[in-house]
């Protein structure tokens, strides 16, 4: 199923619909393409979705969709950040001097509207991996957060959902509401609720409603 066909199908009924953007790192540019398709062909569609799910890079897209932000702005940031990481030829984004999450926070603070948390409250569900620290060995579990109280909390949730231990260096895990958390893709890479009418989006070929055909690939350029 293509993005265009999903747009046509979703725009014809009066159905409760939700959409889930999977985690994918720099390949989040694929989500941007899906968002651009919606904006170009059925601009009212995002208004009709009752919920947006997102994990890791998909969380950024979910928030942008709920806020009706220009999808090309995150695309330009991802492309610029990816190109900057390649300046460190040996380690790329893993280089100690390349702080991806500081760059992400700076981008979100400058890009998201002041009332982003209000627009996303109980509508955007961000997938994070948290840990049951009562266990001898902390057990990872998925945590969906949606009732954002402040813009800062929303930004922290996006960063927590995107944080990959090791990739981010030897740093403490970020905290959201006092809980240590990391990339939501570890426990639920394509989060969804119990409603069967959830449109799933991923840049990886597979069983998602919107994804590349087998044998194709997604480029960050």
TrEMBL record:
GO terms for molecular function: triacylglycerol lipase activity. A motif (DGA/G) lies at residues 183-185. It holds the Pfam family Patatin. The keyword tRNA processing does not apply. GO terms for biological process: lipid homeostasis; triglyceride catabolic process. Keywords: Hydrolase, Lipid degradation, Lipid metabolism. The keyword Nucleotide-binding does not apply. A motif (GXSXG) lies at residues 54-58. A motif (GXGXXG) lies at residues 23-28. One of its GO terms (cellular component) is cytoplasm. The active site is at residues 56, 183. InterPro entries: Acyl_Trfase/lysoPLipase, PLPL, PNPLA_dom. Residues 19-196 form the PNPLA domain. This is Patatin-like phospholipase domain-containing protein 2. It comes from Geodia barretti.
